[in-house]
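Consortium newsletter contribution from the modelling node. Members have asked for a concrete example of what our holo predictions look like. Here is one, prepared for the pyridoxal-5'-phosphate complex that several groups have been discussing at recent meetings.
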Amino acid sequence: MTKRTIYLDYAATTPVDPAVAAAMRECLEPDGNFANPSSSHSAGQRALGRVEEARAQIAARVSAPADTIWFTSGATESDNLAIQGAMLAHRDQGRHLITSRTEHKAVLDTAAAMEKQGFEVTYLVCDSDGLIAPEQVAAAIKDDTTLVSIMHVNNETGVVQDITAIGECCRSRAVLLHVDAAQSIGKVPVPLDQWAADLVALTAHKVYGPKGIGALYVRPGTKLAPLMYGGAQERGVRPGTLATHQIVGMGQAYELADTDREAPVLAAMRDRLWAGLSAIDGVRLNGHPTQRSPHVLNLVFPGVDGESLRLGIAEIAVSAGAACNATAPEASHVLSALGLSDTLAGSSQRFSVGRFTEPAEIDYTIERVTAEVARLRELAGGAPAWCTN
Ligand SMILES: Cc1ncc(COP(=O)(O)O)c(C=O)c1O
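And here is the predicted structure:
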């Protein structure tokens, strides 16, 4: 991508860090670690060594033992394996699943598929800041509840749920907790040694690793039914030849993702953007003002059609919300859950900053968005009276 595009869509995906690409390349070349890690010859065992090193790097980043990290193709698969795998494995003990309306589609569509198979699902409703109260989780747990699935960092608003407290509710009622932490690494700590979480979905491509690789943290003793059959890899629960280069890339990406170092830099960029854009008449922040990740700023510009704004600032990559829903015509289910009308949800933009964001790009974005909002409002006959400060 040329530098003429300003990339402020790091919540959708990130570029691969050059150090990650170099580590991956070593596993692709004829004199590198390309062998099948399941092969018993020395080349295979060397590749296996690299896989296990990556497993340890990922485990270290989330304060978990290495053998709790099981590789998948990404957070979507991890969410599916966690939810379907746990519900199917415990189908005789309990058929009730609890989740929330603001989850990623990887969870919501999986929950809907479980409902079609005769499982019962409770969808918790967040408050207008996007938060789920731990008491709501406690109140929803029934005798036949098997699993609660609540995300950590919301991909559209950046709102961070109180997983520690939610985990305590689940643990005290002997209910499993699954957490989608796809957006968290490098931005908000994921202390699995402190959370009472049994299953946690991780991915590489939100944190400068390659697409198509992820992991599921599985607390020892958690029963999961496999969704695929075909080999003994990943304890037979997730069979298939291990993608050494992808796994090594993910390991390297997680090693580089130092939250203590990076989160304050991201927060400074996000705050610089908000300081500039908050001067626009009527602009509002979507999601909790403080309990949120440093990389996401979701704003509503009343009276401005979101798609028109994105077209007007085409040299700046921002999005309406989740990239996977970008072609869906309906309003964001996350912003609707926060109580926004379809019109306000359609006037919202997600800006997300990352490792390669520069202050000059933020300043340019402030200038361009401010001018474009003014132009679009002018075309529409001026900003409505209620949205002037
Ligand atoms: C919160 C959340 N969960 C799940 C996913 C899906 O992750 P992946 O692209 O690794 O399947 C994403 C990213 O799109 C996400 O932001």
